[in-house]
Amino acid sequence: MKVDVLLGLQWGDEGKGKVVDVLTPKYEVVTRFQGGPNAGHTLEFEGQKYVLRSIPSGIFQGGKINIIGNGVVLDPALFKAEVEQLEQSGHDLTKRLYISRKAHLILPTHRLLDAAYESAKGKGKIGTTGKGIGPTYTDKVSRNGLRVGDIELNFKEKYDAAIARHKEILSHYDFKYDLAPIEKEWWAGIEKLKQYKFVDSEHFINKTLADGKKILAEGAQGTMLDVDFGSYPFVTSSNTICAGACTGLGVAPHRIGDVFGIFKAYCTRVGAGPFPTELFDETGKTIRDLGHEYGAVTGRERRCGWIDLVALKYAVMINGVTKLIMMKSDVLDGFDTIKACVAYKINGIETEDFPFDICEGVEPVYTEFDGWKTDMSKMTSVNEFPEEYNAYISFIEEYLGVPIKIVSVGPDREQTIQL
Ligand code: GDP
Ligand code: IMO
Ligand code: MG
């Protein structure tokens, strides 16, 4: 059997959590493969809303095993808060949530380093989520990290050495901090973490596949935030792309099955960095208001703009997307005209190829579509789609060369239409 991968094709917040939840019944195991609590994945069903940060979005569907994979970075304090919130709403995850021993731990000082680096960058700051993601992945790559499996082996000694090293780095920054309260929370988080099953997830996952069971891998962030292929340096610190599922889970490339590429019918971005189709006018504001485009965790305003098919085509190529999923088209239900960026004009020359750098001098070239002007939020079947809507999705499919298999017309689990 294979691992199907579901990942974001834009700058995150495409609606990954919602669709992973919808697809989970078809799988035996759901697993996150990268990122950490910088993610905020929203699920809505039976009148309840949940926001998941480190826990995979398959956790609510019928006792399936969910795994936090080795590519993830995990903050014990935030993990504790997340599971306690779920416990309060009656969800006990201890039997069905496993954690990879090779997942790296976000230490209390990683968060401080994230803040210190950001403030030192001044105007060039990335606008990170402040969760210590960059410093934790830096320690992983520079071979200084602490992993979940270390909790079982001389842990305090390793922790103290890491904290001393971080304190020394922090002393070079004009940055005040009080470590004691966050350390206390963090150690309480470690105790909580110990209630969960630590696994050698690469063995578990490959055995699951060998037993003929299907796995869904859930991406975090989006392709344009990928550390190699995103809008560098305004990116996150992990490989958010399909290849990240191989390294973040320990599965061979030929074990990857379908790659579900998910995107919004328009585009958003949170934090700093280039965004060629960003709208600074009333239309941008209308999209933000109608789409409730505010960060799931931080509440930060998301920047809004038209769909960028040049960037999407690049994302489809990098990920080898086999099936597309279009989200939030209901947000555009009332628009007279909808635009899609079909090329970039750079130094007066039009191109459909995503360039090295989109920071400056990229002017979007748009094609216009008539709006469908129909409330689609209660539709359940493709037969009900307005003609203008069909024209919009057909154009996107043709441009990207991949079929759209699911459209989402509202935040609830039920507002999902298979094509
Ligand atoms: P993720 O990080 O990719 O899981 O996405 P987020 O949860 O950060 O952001 C997606 C937001 O859009 C959440 O508030 C969802 O509840 C909401 N959402 C998801 N799909 C739809 C949709 O089709 N229509 C509308 N209006 N909202 C949606
Ligand atoms: P989900 O999984 C949207 C952005 C931050 C910042 C940059 C780097 O919910 O789609 P980091 O804290 O990772 O070092 O921040 O990446 N970012 C996200 N934007 N959705 C996310 O996750 C994001 N995770 C990080 O805003 O610009
Ligand atoms: Mg999100």
Secondary structure: elements and pairs:
Layout: E1 3-8, H1 16-23, E2 29-32, E3 41-45, E4 48-52, E5 65-68, E6 73-74, H2 76-88, E7 97-100, E8 104-105, H3 108-121, H4 133-141, H5 155-170, H6 179-193, E9 197-199, H7 201-210, E10 215-218, H8 242-249, E11 256-264, E12 267-269, H9 282-290, E13 303-305, E14 307-308, H10 309-319, E15 323-327, E16 337-346, E17 349-351, E18 362-370, H11 387-400, E19 404-408, E20 416-418
Parallel strand pairs: 1-10, 1-11, 2-5, 2-10, 5-7, 6-8, 7-9, 11-15, 14-16, 15-19
Antiparallel strand pairs: 3-4, 12-13, 16-17, 16-18, 19-20
Helix pairs in contact: 2-6, 3-4, 3-5
Bound molecules: guanosine-5'-diphosphate, 6-O-phosphoryl inosine monophosphate (IMO) and magnesium ion.
6-O-phosphoryl inosine monophosphate (IMO) binds at residues 8, 11-13, 35, 38-41, 126-129, 131, 133-134, 220-222, 225, 236-237, 270-271.
How would you explain this protein's 3D organization?
It contains eleven helices and 20 strands. It is globular, with a radius of gyration of 21 Å. Helix 2 (76-88) packs across helix 6 (179-193), helix 3 crosses helix 4 (133-141) and helix 3 (108-121) runs parallel beside helix 5. The strands form five sheets. A ten-stranded mixed β-sheet has the order 9-7-5-2-10-1-11-15-19-20, sandwiched between helices. Strands 14, 16, 17 and 18 form a four-stranded mixed β-sheet that branches. It has 419 residues and is of the alpha/beta class. The chain has helices at residues 16-23, 76-88, 108-121, 133-141, 155-170, 179-193, 201-210, 242-249, 282-290, 309-319, 387-400, and strands at residues 3-8, 29-32, 41-45, 48-52, 65-68, 73-74, 97-100, 104-105, 197-199, 215-218, 256-264, 267-269, 303-305, 307-308, 323-327, 337-346, 349-351, 362-370, 404-408, 416-418. The longest helix is centred in the middle third of the chain and has 16 residues, at 155-170. Helices cover 30% and strands 22% of the residues. Bound molecules: guanosine-5'-diphosphate, 6-O-phosphoryl inosine monophosphate and magnesium ion.
